[in-house]
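Obj: model holo form, ligand = 1,3-dihydroxyacetonephosphate.
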Amino acid sequence: MTQNKTYLFANWKMYLDYDESNILANALAEKSKKFSDEIEMTVFPSALSLYPVAQTLSDVKINVGPQNIYWVDKGGYTGETSAQMFKAAGSSHALIGHSERRHLFHETNHDVRQKIEASLNAELTPVLCVGETEKERDEGKTEEIVEIQLRATLEDLNWPKDRELIVAYEPVWAIGTGNACDPAEAERMHDKIFNWIKGLAPGISPVLLYGGSVRGENVEGYLQMSHINGVLVGGSSAKLESWMEIIENSTRAVEKL
Ligand code: 13P
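Output (holo structure tokens):
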């Protein structure tokens, strides 16, 4: 890994209701005393649960962020919540451009860019998600698609020097399927992504995460790769037992490096 921290990011998606989110946050707060200082953890609860989860985790070293934001600060945008509002509710990060937003809710690269800009303006650290669909992969378009996603979002952006640039490579075919990308194949894409970002945001050393069917039993394989700084986990992050297994196996992997 090129960074000295290991990033364990938990996307709770719409798996947990209000009570379940608070129960999991409380359990993590309790266990957090034993977490290694080298682990940087961020959880992304539902918008409904974000404020109490952020309150619970404010005294422990676990960051909180929304799964999506809107780019206007305030106004007549029924059903939306702005980056500024999430910042005021205790967020430090924001997931942007997750494949479920892109494919189920028709978010475009242009929307993603506006959300990245709004996150930076609100002093949130965006976590930009990129990745190709199974069809795009079968057509040999993986690199083309991911480069377009990065370029559309980051070109001429002038990334602030004091803010991390975090990109999660999440191949759509690996999300929620149990069909995780082979670590060596993920590393090959991370290496490409690293070099594209070097060109798009000179002087910034990106943090790169892998996401897609990460489990306790396969997490170490990703963390051993030189351009993979951590993982973005869906299903296995929303249950205490499977998330703890990922934390424990990651800690072991970090100690071995
Ligand atoms: P799964 O870990 O459930 O495959 O989801 C990955 C993901 O989408 C994280 O953002």
